[in-house]
Here is the input.
Amino acid sequence: MTVRVRFAPSPTGYLHVGGGRTGLYNYLFARHNNGTFVLRSDDTDEARSTEEFRLDIIESLRWLGLDWDEGIEVGGPMQTYRQSERLARYQEVAAELVAAGKAYHSFASPEQLDQFRKEAQAAGRSPAYDGSLEPSPADATARLAAEEPATVRFAVPRPGETSFEDVVRGTVAFDHAQVEDFVILRSNGTPTYHLASSVDDVDFEISHVIRGEDLLSSTPKHILLTEAMGAERATYAHLSLLMGPDGKKLSKRHGHTAIKAYRDDGYLATAMVNYLALLGWSPGEDETVVSLGDMVARFDLSTVSKNPAIFDTDKLQWMNGVYIREMSPAEFVDAVRPLVEADLDRRLDDGEMEKLAEIAPLVQERAKLLTEVPPQVRFLFGDIEYDEASWNKVMTKEGAAEAVAGAADRLATVDGWSIDVVEASLRAMLAELELSARKGLQPLRVAISGSSVSPPLFESIAALGRPRTVERLEAARERMG
Ligand code: GLU
Here is the structure.
């Protein structure tokens, strides 16, 4: 079996997490079967398609690590993988179907069609349009010659039925009484989605169409078109839609829906891909953390669930934390460096990189998102900025002023400088002042980092260095009056 699949997003929005999951399943299926993964751009909707969205789709897929073998950007045996550049081909197929009597020019106006549907419904018949409003062939020819605008509709054979074995959903059947004579070419000559998609799937020799369940009712139309073109139908697999934790269709109300937004929020591509894969498929009993390579080895489209999948950002965040901890310290530093530099709006020099490398493992242990890192390490690189809420809460407490003064005096003169030295010196200070660690150390944290949330204190002080630590303790002492 030669597997050729396509992912065919429309560049009318940022790549959605549901689209990312569809792209991933196409990728996994292609790679598992040594097949070909094609990326097509469904950009016939000129008014809504933009270059920005087209680039976002490409960038998001590349970020996720889903490389494609043929398609936009990479090329391939077809001249183009953009539907907007294949309009002549769709018009050609429409003309062939009309010539073969499998499609016809339609003059029915929207008002007439509306009327037709209402009457059919009132009479208890199917509202699917069956062509009965059209003029005789001779009339139609005359009206076309007079350049009257007409759409082209596919003539659905009735009575009849189209059924297929969906890899995910099992047998699906559509009675043609419920399938209207659908438009394939608009009166301005542009193809509908049904025509463009079916022609491309045939011309690109697509073996398996893996896409969202929202397109299930389009499939009988695509099969009819495909077979009318004299081609063999593909195998279809319709993936259930993504839901929010409340069981409603995933939307902005639940959080971000664009892959790009998750990247910007500090998620790792590895975690994102792993989480998306679990939305309908399971790599094995109770197993959740699986690399892309392992997923390729194990992917089986026929075990994908037809139940709706819940997209839960809490679970995604948990998984992101798992992947953050799986990074080597050097990988983690590489990943956060650009974020830290963007936060400071300048490059880090070699000395600062050493400090970052010193403190990074402590942040890595706890972080769930890469974006948590810059605010936590900022104190090492810039001037101190006090978080007023932290200051007011911590620095007014009993013992705070004594702790800051005691630490300033001790750390200015202690012998040597290391995490152990700092810790021993400050513990001696706590004992002398009879302060608990909570009461005595929290003010030091605010004094050196500006905030009551920072990486572990002794390590932070050691990394900050003696001169800046003492300077900050003195500044805090003065500010406390
Ligand atoms: N372009 C369609 C969409 O974005 C998908 C087409 C298909 O997979 O058949 O929903």
Observations:
- Residues 8-10, 42, 197, 211, 215 surround glutamic acid (CB under 6 Å).
- The first helix runs from residue 17 to 32.
- Residues 327-380 form one domain.
- The mean pLDDT is 97.
